[in-house]
Records
---
Amino acid sequence: MSSERELEISPIVQESLMQNSRTLSNLQSLTASLFGVSAGILGLESYSGFLFYIVFSLLTAVLFYVLRVAPTSIASGKAPLDTSRYFRGPYEFWAGGVMNGFAGFVLTWTLFYGLVRA
């Protein structure tokens, strides 16, 4: 939790948190559909398809963190893996995308699996 002094120096703006969440959600929805296309074309079935989705969704979160969040966190002196300054919580950042994009993944996965295997 941030102290009052830290909030005075660099305040957390709710509009910025909402914009960051929207950007991350859009990225996760887009990549979930792309992962569904990939899983369908590869012909993955059952657990291997779901494992494919989970691994690549978490990989997307890690890449987003490394390329976008980590440089600014390190520059501001924050602890590693601390996303509280840019997002509502760590769950929203690390695992929220797995649930948000799941429906789009399954939809495109079954569509492309049917198209390729038909």
---
Amino acid sequence: MVEVLANLSRGPVFLAGETIHCDISFHHPGPPSNTGRTESPRENNRVTLAWASVQIICQCTVSESRVLLPRGPLPSTADVSSTGCDTSFVPNKGERGSTVLSTKPKILFCDLTLTAGQTKSFKFEDAIPTDSPPSYRGQAVKYSYKIIIGTQRFQQPTKLLRIPFRVLVLYGLNDLSVYNEPDEVAPSNPFLRPKQKQNTILDIATQVMATVTARKSPHSFNITNSQGRVAKLLLFKQAFKLGDDIVGVFDFKDGTIPCVQYSVTLQSEEQISEECRHKMSQGSAITSYVKHQEMCLHVDETHMSIPIPLTASPGFITDIVCLRWRLHFEFVTLCEPLDPAELMEIGEEFSSWRGPANINVETMIWDLPIKIFPSNPVHVSSVTMMKSANSIKV
């Protein structure tokens, strides 16, 4: 028996374009202790593995009632390797859906012999293509990534070890030379080291995400209906990262229509492309995440704060599906003025107001598009439920 252990040291979340580092070890613990023999046979002290290969795949699973895929292979963002179909290493064996991305398999070893108690360790490194689809679990489409480690003992079936991981996509990182400073404009300082370390794709992505989601000039929106002005919304920005808080301020002082209650819901909109829709009349799938609700009658000013979950998927678009984000507002306004307030004196400084038992109201709905970008994958790894290590016995 050989125990195969694989571990993603940094965690199970990566950006498209990053290089995955995986530590893989093969350990032979020795013959079982309950054999009842005083001396184990020589073949029990030595185990030979024929080969071991590693490969990254991305599987796409769709809902047949909502998605009608075109005939032939799925549109792929990377060339799907056919090597696995011609050898005993079939990385997508037993997987659901279709393979839309498959890197070239890398051979760890051929003909490896382990003695009892011996361990052999290997390091696997491979880059995730920058044009890969992101990890996503929607109502109609699912993209899932896995590292597949295949190995085989002589005259025994192939065993596969799977390690799922998550991929975040930040568009615009295809050419890193745009972000790296060229040599001719680099400062010439004799005290600087001659070789400057180039920024990694994670460093560049972090700078880009911080720039596009930085707070700039606030956005002001006047919320009105057919009868007049309801409120004024001040939103400090419309581009956010995973884990950010969406903060806004409502101003009801200058409103001509009293607002009784408002609610704000963070929603994602999953839209299937026209070529892949099962029915041309089918609409988008809406998923709600976080909701903020507040009573605001006789309130001059209030604010909202909606956290964006780190487990959510940033906006993206592929040949099959497009994911967008929005804030869904609902305002409950009065259709007619209230009766004069009935005040009840409580002491000398305080009074209370008793509202009417029934009021005539109407609800106004408004959707505000926003943009959500990825966050640092190291931070996202801290809340993911994925395991960064797995093992099998061969």
---
Amino acid sequence: MKLYAELPARRTRQIVADVSAVAWTALWVQIAYLLHQAISALAKIPDQVTRDGNSLRDSLNGAAKEAGKIPLVGKELGQKLADAAGVAQSAAEAGRTGSETVGTVALFTAIVVGVAVTVPILLFWILARARWVARARTAVLLRDEPAGEDLLALRALSTAALKRLRQAAADPAGGWRDRDPVTMKALATLELATLGLRSR
């Protein structure tokens, strides 16, 4: 199985395309990571609310216990402080929920950006490379078979641009019908060159 062309010009283009695809993917993975980090940094605010809420709740609960020891008004004062501790607990829960929401948004945004930008390019690159590998494999097998030259020449006749056909032979169709060896060789070489492969 061939992964790269034999002719230098086509092989260089393939290598550049491969390196570019990998570099593009790495770049956008890094961008998605930085975006995730930037959005995640916003969680510092709800995290602080959670910490402050928990601290205030603990303080109010402690004060409520102590207030309960005061004669006459202790029970009512302790209840008020306990209620305030409940409000602080609610604030802490809201901060925790906010932090989780920010984390979810950061992760979702990074995934969407990374996938939306890299996957189409990678799919196009992989499909193009797979198509070339399959065509090159078939062409190499035909090149190495005595009867393969005829099929390669026919393929060139059916797919190559007219200008390139006329450059390869004065009468490409007539030469192919007459099985002129020079024309057959030129057409087969043209088809192989289109794939970046050398003639036999």
---
Amino acid sequence: MHRDRTIELLRTGYPWAASLRAGRPAVATRLLGRQAVVVGGPAGVRRFYDPRLRRKGSLPAPLGLLLFGPGTVHGLDDAEHRLRKALALGVITPTTVAALGERAEREWAVATARWTERQRVVLFDEAVQVHTAAVLPWAGVPAGAGELPRRARQLAAVLDGFATPGPAYLRAVLARLRIGRWAKGLVRGVRAGRVHAPDGSALQRAADATDQRGTRLSDAAAATALLNVVRPTVAVAWFVAFAGKALHEHPEWRERIAGGDAEAVAAFVHEVRRLYPFVPVLAARAREAQDVLGVRIPRGGLVVLDVHGTDHDPAHWPEPDRFDPGRFLGPPVDPDTLVPQGGGDVTTGHRCPGEDVTLTMLAVAVRALARAPHAVPAQDLGYDLTRVPTLPRSGVVLEAARVAAAADGSR
């Protein structure tokens, strides 16, 4: 019998699954007290999204309830999943994503203009605030200027601590309770006619959503649906921090992006997501006993997708730990080799419905950073792969143009 590797996953973080697989498409193990198989690479990605697997019960409750909330689409299957997925896709359309991007552009313009008034800023903190200020009004959520910073901190705290045992997890639990109560209050307010939600907004659609029987979702489930649109947008702040690090370390790409090279922006964004994925693994459960790429799994057994290892597979990504957006300037890559936000079909499967939001918000931030005059002082830009989600240790400290110019003149 295989030994349980749950503690090993918690201690090792992102490299765990690839180390266990050692280049194999699938390897048997034990996780969370269940028989499991870890899969990766294109074959593993395709198998992970096989309909013989389900998502319900695949995540331990302390993690799933904290990050996603009760009744989340991430833990649903079949008709129930399709119905809830349609709710998200009704909010996230090409037109609405473009509108969100325009809001983000305005917020970044305001933020970067204010940098000259401050000696230093932490890019990660700025991104959290900018994205919250953009996404809440876009989602139809009424939030005054005084409330936005608090909600931004709470959303970031949930994301920062969901997979980190200790004080960060406790802070995440407290933040999740507070943000959940706030979201339920918004839903109740809309349903009672006390809060106005613009037609077609995430808040309006969540408040009006029904289940398969046509029964209106509970306040908690509707609040979860709302937060599952808002929270991932704030999560893009982690990618923005790594983008700031990459722009500093690769000034030739900063110049291309600042010069208006749209292909360079798209390639840069994809490489940031490939090199620095948000989660190390994803999980599903077997509906019935079955063979998974040569490994026999019982009903209820876990199938774990190696996200980080797939995005760093040297068979598909030469020198996988090297930052090189040029990988994305040639022919389109195999979508099953790039899964920072999951794989499969976004409409019918479990691929993240907010992937277009991530791409848009990250592209907007990258352009704003490339064009904003700033310097990056000496700091620790390293990151810890044993911590999930990881982040440059400094948060990426920037000095505004006024301070940078003075430093240049003293040389």
